[in-house]
Amino acid sequence: MAQLLSTAAEKLSLGADAGKVVYIDEVKGSDEAGQGTQDAPFKTAIKALDFAGESAQIQVKKDEEGYKEISASALKKAKKTLVEQQRKAKKQEEQKLKQEQEKDSSLPKAQTIKIRDAVASRGKRVKVSGWVHRLRVQGKDMMFAVLRDGSGYIQCVLTGQLCKTFDAITLTLESTITVYGVINQLPEGKTAPDGHELVVDYWTMVGKAPGGDDAFTNKISQDADPSYLLDQRHLVLRGETASAVMKARSQVIKAFRAHFEHKGYTEVTPPCMVQTQVEGGSTLFAFDYYGQQAYLTQSSQLYLETCLPALGDVFCLAESYRAEKSHTRRHLSEYTHLEAELAFITFDDLLQGLEDLICDTLDRVLADEPTRQLIEQLNPGFQRPQRPFMRMTYADAITYLKENEIKKEDGTYYQFGEDIPEAPERVMTDKIGKPIFLTRFPAEIKAFYMQKCSDDRRVTESVDVLMPGVGEIVGGSMRMDNMEELIEAYKNAGIDSAPYYWYTEQRKYGTTPHGGFGLGVERFLAWLLNRYTVRECSLYPRFTGRCTP
Ligand code: 4AD
């Protein structure tokens, strides 16, 4: 601003652009977006003078009457105001410079840190940059600003002259600033993040956020409509809860990877653009691929299976896509899918591997103190589930529903062979109150590739992991390893086997018993972090009708 005004002052005194006609419209003009033309007029005479200099010929429009030359008194007033503004800005700039010079010469050089390093940097002069997360002004001589840099929060205290500059007086939430000073532990009885505060000796504004109607607090309020909040997701993410979920998500993903790394699995990155289905044609997103029909992948499972002979046990962490019409709180159109595939295993090995994955991941995230704190913040009192997890067959679940009077909408009981939808599954899981491995689903209600049980050909070696509060978070199974049986299964499912030649040939060139699973990362997080919906666990959730921002 000072730079702009001093340029204006030069123009005033030198009379640059003498005689230039500049248009202002006091109603519809804009000092920010205008250009001083009839089509894009400025709003104020001050801006016109600033733009074109003292001798500008200013044409004013106040109403529908059209442009008229500015009155002498209005011109005089505008010139006076501009000079005054310029004087103030210059003074401020000088004051800033003076402060900077004083500090630079008398204080030790500040070490640039991230807020996460604040505890270790106590007592030293530091430089921290971040966003103003909270702001409290106490009288004329004291301001408390909680700064956020994504790595943590720190309370900064500004006193005396530091609170009296134009930038200090007009400081707003979400503005970016850089502060210099020393971090001191707080005395007993005072509270702030990490029990300390940064006593600021110098600070600068990096980018001022708007105040007034456009202020951050006016854009986001907790009780706003969820759809509006999703439109404002880029701002909502800055909040303490949303950012905590995203941080925990990052740590959970790291722990999943560490688990598989520890067990010697190889991570692969299968394609997202495919020409085969895995979990039924009704949830495929189709698109035109150079004139051919292609889909966004529903699951990388088939590709993982093909990796077994080359790489041994494999896993991937990739986006899967489901064109589900369901509006439930656990469905997304795009979700992060953790999938693994294991060779030469039994169904029991598969279940054991799944239990290990869940428990070891929890052990890893809880062993990291900052992550444990995030989980405690979001889901106070969270307890690791006890091993071994409960195992229940689908047939027993049908009996359980009957015995517990959990019925269909029409008042009848679920029968063997029927799909157990989300609502009754949730009631049962919440009633049992702990993780359940639900196994041996009937072949007709599961995907074409599932291995049938040798002791009962009606059911499959399949498992869904159900968690209280969410329901199904994992789907897995042993895979058909006999080629003829698989070709029959394609037929039964009405699938043309030709595009699946690469999958089928797994059974031709060295078949093996094998199995795997897919875990919905957002569903796992919704359970661990006690979120009402998986939408909260996705950075920018996509679901029916929403593909923005
Ligand atoms: O049970 P699903 O459909 O199984 C498969 O895709 C297998 N091919 C995976 C495999 O064996 N490699 O999906 C697996 C998991 C579900 O348990 C659920 O957690 C998640 O993926 N999931 C979804 N999450 C959010 N929104 C959706 N629409 C989801 N559909 C499935």
From TrEMBL:
<dbReference type="Pfam" id="PF01336">
    <property type="entry name" value="tRNA_anti-codon"/>
</dbReference>
<dbReference type="InterPro" id="IPR012340">
    <property type="entry name" value="NA-bd_OB-fold"/>
</dbReference>
<dbReference type="Pfam" id="PF00152">
    <property type="entry name" value="tRNA-synt_2"/>
</dbReference>
<feature type="compositionally biased region" description="Basic and acidic residues">
    <location>
        <begin position="87"/>
        <end position="106"/>
    </location>
</feature>
<feature type="region of interest" description="Disordered">
    <location>
        <begin position="87"/>
        <end position="109"/>
    </location>
</feature>
<dbReference type="GO" id="GO:0005737">
    <property type="term" value="C:cytoplasm"/>
</dbReference>
<dbReference type="InterPro" id="IPR045864">
    <property type="entry name" value="aa-tRNA-synth_II/BPL/LPL"/>
</dbReference>
<dbReference type="InterPro" id="IPR006195">
    <property type="entry name" value="aa-tRNA-synth_II"/>
</dbReference>
<comment type="similarity">
    <text>Belongs to the class-II aminoacyl-tRNA synthetase family.</text>
</comment>
<dbReference type="GO" id="GO:0004816">
    <property type="term" value="F:asparagine-tRNA ligase activity"/>
</dbReference>
<dbReference type="InterPro" id="IPR004522">
    <property type="entry name" value="Asn-tRNA-ligase"/>
</dbReference>
<keyword id="KW-0547">Nucleotide-binding</keyword>
<dbReference type="InterPro" id="IPR048952">
    <property type="entry name" value="AsnRS_N"/>
</dbReference>
<keyword id="KW-0436">Ligase</keyword>
<dbReference type="Pfam" id="PF20917">
    <property type="entry name" value="AsnRS_N"/>
</dbReference>
<dbReference type="InterPro" id="IPR004365">
    <property type="entry name" value="NA-bd_OB_tRNA"/>
</dbReference>
<keyword id="KW-0648">Protein biosynthesis</keyword>
<dbReference type="GO" id="GO:0005524">
    <property type="term" value="F:ATP binding"/>
</dbReference>
<feature type="domain" description="Aminoacyl-transfer RNA synthetases class-II family profile">
    <location>
        <begin position="249"/>
        <end position="541"/>
    </location>
</feature>
<keyword id="KW-0030">Aminoacyl-tRNA synthetase</keyword>
<keyword id="KW-0963">Cytoplasm</keyword>
<protein>
    <recommendedName>
        <fullName>Asparagine--tRNA ligase, cytoplasmic</fullName>
        <ecNumber>6.1.1.22</ecNumber>
    </recommendedName>
</protein>
<dbReference type="GO" id="GO:0003676">
    <property type="term" value="F:nucleic acid binding"/>
</dbReference>
<keyword id="KW-0067">ATP-binding</keyword>
<dbReference type="InterPro" id="IPR002312">
    <property type="entry name" value="Asp/Asn-tRNA-synth_IIb"/>
</dbReference>
<dbReference type="InterPro" id="IPR004364">
    <property type="entry name" value="Aa-tRNA-synt_II"/>
</dbReference>
<dbReference type="GO" id="GO:0006421">
    <property type="term" value="P:asparaginyl-tRNA aminoacylation"/>
</dbReference>
